[in-house]
Every structure is written in structure tokens, then in C-alpha cells.
Amino acid sequence: MKKVLVVTYSQSGQLNDIVANTLKPLEGEVDIAWEHLKARPEYPFPWKDIHFWDAQPECVEMIPGELEPLKFDTNIDYDLIILGYPIWFLSPPIPLTTFLKSEEAKKVMDGKPVITIIGSRNMWVTAQENIKAMISDNGGKLV
Length: 143
Ligand SMILES: Cc1cc2nc3c(=O)[nH]c(=O)nc-3n(C[C@H](O)[C@H](O)[C@H](O)COP(=O)(O)O)c2cc1C
Hints:
By secondary structure, the chain is α/β, with parallel strands linked by helices. 35% of the residues lie in helices and 20% in strands.
């Protein structure tokens, strides 16, 4: 069975619902490992103004933060990687940037096809361009 690694970050659960629905036709057809990224500390939801604006500079500058330890097996040779993410400030959310700049991402993504799924309010192009560059830096191939 083909092996698919799904990596998502979702604050409210909306993005995870989108990805879960997208994955439905694959159920039973492929082996899915789903990594739910967790920021350390987690960003509060709903946001207070101060936390919302405090996150903006690092987010836009794509400065990595901290994640809870990743649970997926980095030694598996995945056939496909699916990245699901919301948009923050026209940019990738900090937890996804943190993942994409990690050694683990480089290890599993090198030479692999990558699909992205976005849940946003329709302003996402700049973020996707940045994600494309980070996928490519890791040796992944956006398909
Ligand atoms: C800090 C923050 C910034 C956001 N900036 C954008 C944006 O620039 N463009 C956009 O389309 N949506 C933006 N959104 C909306 C989210 O991308 C959207 O609500 C998404 O569905 C959130 O998914 P989640 O709640 O599962 O994490 C922003 C949301 C947050 C919390």
C-alpha cells in the first residue's frame, strides 16, 4: 500500500475538516500518517488583540517558532506528502514555517511529490509562493 504523510496546522479545526473531507476517497486505499502540528506554546483561540498582532512580524518574516515534538516516523519512505495549512497575514502560519524549516521536513520531503491544501479567506497567493519555495528548498516537488 502507498504511504501518505499528511501534515497540517489548524487552530479552530476548520482546516482539519477540509483536509479530512479531501482525504475521504483515499480511505482504505493508502496508508495515511497524519501529523497535527502543535505550536509551543499554542496560539490562543479565539485570539486576543495583543497575541494576534504579536504573531505578525515573525509570521510575515517566516521566522520559525517552536513545535511540540513531531510524532511521525521520519525513516519511512513516503510516496506522497500532503501539507494542509491556513493563511496568516498573507503568509504561511508560523507552525507550518517551523515545520518546513526543520530537519525532519528536509529528510522526508527530499525527492517526494507534495500536494498543498489551503483553508483561508481567499487571500493566499503570496503565502503559497513562500510555501513553494520552502518545499523546493527541501527537495520536494509540488504537484
Ligand atoms: C492570524 C490570522 C491571520 C489571517 N490572515 C489571513 C490572510 O491573510 N488571508 C486569508 O485569506 N485568511 C486569513 N486568515 C483566515 C484563516 O486563514 C482562516 O480563518 C482559516 O480557515 C483558519 O483555519 P483554522 O482555524 O483551522 O486554523 C487569518 C486568520 C488568522 C487567525
